Amino acid sequence: MEKSAQLHWDTVYETKNANEVSWTQDMPTTSLDFIHSFAVPKSAKIIDIGGGDSKLVDYLLQEGYENISVLDISEKALDKAKKRLGTQAQRVNWIVSDVIDFKPATHYDVWHDRATFHFLTTKDQIEKYLYIARNAVDGFLTIGTFSENGPDKCSGLPIKQYNENKLTSELENGFSKIRCITNDHITPFNTTQHFLFCSFRRMQN
What we know:
The strands form two sheets. Strands 3-2-1-4-5-9-8 form a seven-stranded mixed sheet, with helices on both faces. The chain has helices spanning 3-15, 29-37, 56-62, 75-85, 123-136, 164-171; strands spanning 45-49, 67-72, 92-96, 108-114, 137-146, 153-154, 157-158, 175-186, 192-202. By secondary structure, the protein is an alpha/beta fold.
């Protein structure tokens, strides 16, 4: 795990509240819509990549999903989510890891990533991520990134913008595109961030 990246995100989550970071959503509607579209059973294995203290896990638990994992590079972020969930946190598998160092111990029916993939700015990082995803995903994958009309930085870090063709091209080895949409995220500061969300199906070899 890259210590500088871990320190960066631990500091963010230690020093800022949810209403002080741009990615906060009261209800992750777009993410939930994509997960619902896969029509997987409540027993499906779902992982939220870079979930931090996102409320996606809250809604999935409320809806009765039984096998949820949340991965984040920042233990501080996951601690916030655990504290918010209280005893419900025991129903979640919490994983502290940089995604490109992740060694999955199981296969997932749904891999969800909102705003982690676009922090991977080198070919090597992207290839590592996709190698892990190809080996870990049995069913569906959905990724949300900043679009070409979105910011070029987040939390002071550079990101990589995508359009539908670029994102589909990155995933064509192993995944077939189902659909893509664009989405405006209104931040807690009342600014707008333009996102691209795409869903994919894992192709069998």
